[in-house]
C-alpha cells in the first residue's frame, strides 16, 4: 500500500510539474531572416530594445488607485540591437533590405497590486495579451511581416514616483512571452542542441519563450499626461533586454505523469490477478 501511494504521489507531482522548471536560457542562438529576404545573425546572447508604450490606468470607479484596478498597455519596441556571446554589442544591425526588426502589442492588460497610498508605489501584474515580432517598417505595421506571435505567460513589475518625475508610472517590468508557433521548427530561430543536452531529445519540439526585462520611464515631452476622474493615460519610454528561453512542452510531463498513473493501475490489477 505504501508503494502504491508513493507511485500515485509521484505521478501527481509530475502531472503538476510546470515546464518552466526545466527551462534553459539559450546563449548563442541564431535568428534567420533569409526566408523574408533578410540577413542571418548567429551567436546571439540577448537582444536589447528601446521604444515606447501607452498606459491606460483605471481607478476602478472610486477615484483612487487601489489594488485590483485594471490597466491596459500598447507598446512599440522599434529599436532592436543585440549582444553576441563574446559580449560585443551591435547597435542598429543591418537586418536586411533596409527594414527593421521590431516588437509591437496593443492588448497587454492586468491589474495593480500592493498600492502604497503614501509613497505612490505599486506593483503591476500583467495577466493577458500578446506581442508580435515584425520585420518591416515600424511606421507601417499593416504592411510589415509578422514573423512570430507570442502570448503572455507571466508578467510582473513595479512602479514608482521617483524616476524621471513620474507619478507612479516609472519602474521595472518583467514578462515571459511564449511563442505560439514553433520558431525552432520553422527555422526562424535555432541553436546548437549539442550545447543543451538536457533539451536534445525534444528539439525542436520545445516551448520557447522570450523573457523581457524592461525599464519604463514617464515621458510627458512626447504625449502629455492625461488625468481624469477615473484614471490616467500616459506615454512611457521603454528599454531593456530580452533573453531566449527553451523548455520541454507541458505535454511531455503530462504523458510521463499519465504513464506513471497507468503503471499504478497495472500494478494494482496485476496483484488482484
Shape from CA axes?
globular
How many DSSP-defined strands?
A: 14
| Fraction of helical residues | 10-25%
- Provide mean pLDDT, rounded: 85
Gyration radius (Cα, Å) is: 22 Å
What's the helix-strand series? Answer: HEEEEEEEEEEEHEEEH
Poorly predicted tracts of residues: 1-21, 251-273
Q: In whole angstroms, how far apart are the ends? A: 16 Å
Give the strand content: over 45%
Number of helices: 3
Largest sheet: 14 strands, antiparallel
Structural class: alpha+beta
Commentary on this structure:
The protein has 3 helices and 14 strands. By secondary structure, it is α+β, with helices and mostly antiparallel strands. Strands 1, 2, 3, 4, 5, 6, 7, 8, 9, 10, 11, 12, 13 and 14 form a 14-stranded antiparallel β-sheet that branches. A hairpin with a 4-residue loop joins strand 4 (70-84) and strand 5 (89-90). Helix 1 (2-16) runs antiparallel to helix 3. The radius of gyration is 22 Å and the shape is globular. Mean pLDDT is 85; it is low at 1-21 and 251-273.
